[in-house]
Amino acid sequence: MAADERRTDAKALVAAAVTVVLWASSFVSIRSTGEHFTPGALALGRLGAGALVLCAVLLVRREGIPPRAAWPGIITSGLLWFGGYMVVLNWGERLVDAGTAAMLVNIGPILMALLGGWLLKEGFPARLLAGMAVSFAGAVVVGLSVSDGGGSSPLGVVLCVLAAVAYAVGVVSQKPALRHASPLQVTAFSCLIGFVACLPFSGHLASDMADAPLSATLNTVYLGVFPTALAFSTWAYALSRSTAGRMGSTTYVVPFLVVLMSWLVLDEVPGPLALGGGLLCLAGVAVSRSRGRSPRPPQPVAAATAPPAGQPTSPAPSGRRTAG
């Protein structure tokens, strides 16, 4: 791998790591905030705070409006991922236990790899598929370890699956937009579109904010500024320098990080099963992001040179005289 490629891959990996950590922290915040905000109101508040920060940065950097070619991907990503995904997932997590939700949402990266290989012509590298299989197994183990065993609502299962589909389609639609616009432009306008789509929940948000404690409101602002504005921007930056399939594989670390953060913040001690599943997630990500050995460049073959004019040709190697 060339030095420039190594630097680009390292920057993308750091950006993806920032995204994964902040997205994992959002689950911890949503657990407490969701008690005081309805799913639509929480999504609207989060997207409003995120859109405000992103548009301010956009104005400071003077990046302007994205070109026309980027808008189909921005609109699709804004409606499905920023808008629909957040509302549906907030709703679904109220109806299923944490373990089931983690397993169902982690269908998303698999769908992402399949859609990226098909629609974006990214192919289906063996290392990516193998790594995703290992990571998915780890996510299932983590999900089983944190499941409360209280049963799941069929509607909750359907909602979590819909969230995973919206997540995958949103990411895959975002990739072509990044060929025409900057990561900040794509993220800011996608967030703004998601915010506008969630405006019908403004009445619920006003009512919930009037009754919610200050800590819940501050948590909503945190969700908008960090897991949304910052994390979605670093995600778009990394996605612009990688494939949708490889980026999706990195999110398998999220369930493991959620367990660790819950341990530190909520005093929920992870068991050996959760830690083992987390190690599987990390191992799968390492496999999916690894590169195979580069094939050896072909050795140059010396071209046969004709003897200078006037010199006799060498005799045939067989020892027999050539026909005269």
Task: Tell me what the structure shows.
It is a single chain. With 324 residues, this protein is mainly alpha-helical. It has one domain. Helix content is 71%, strand content 0%. It has helices at 3-33, 39-61, 71-92, 98-105, 108-119, 126-146, 154-177, 183-197, 202-211, 214-239, 244-250, 254-265, 272-289. Helix 5 (108-119) runs antiparallel to helix 11, helix 6 runs antiparallel to helix 13 (272-289) and helix 8 crosses helix 10 (214-239). The chain is globular and about 50 Å long. The model is unreliable at 300-306 and 315-324 (pLDDT under 50).
The largest pleated sheet is described as: none
Taken together, the total number of domains comes to 1
Provide the residue-averaged pLDDT.
78
Alpha carbon gyration radius: 26 Å
Q: What are the secondary-structure elements, in order, as H or E? A: HHHHHHHHHHHHH
| Alpha plus pi helix count | 13
Please state roughly what percent of the residues sit in beta strands, choosing from under 5%, 5-15%, 15-25%, 25-35%, 35-45% or over 45%: under 5%
> What best-fitting shape do the alpha-carbon axes yield?
globular
**What would you call the structural class?**
mainly alpha
Number of β-strand runs: 0
Through-space gap between termini: 56 Å
Helical fraction equals over 70%
Low-confidence segments, given as residue ranges, are: 300-306, 315-324
Transmembrane segments: 12-30, 42-60, 69-88, 100-120, 127-146, 152-172, 184-206, 218-238, 250-266, 272-288
Pfam families: EamA
Region (Disordered): 289-324
Biased composition (Low complexity): 301-324
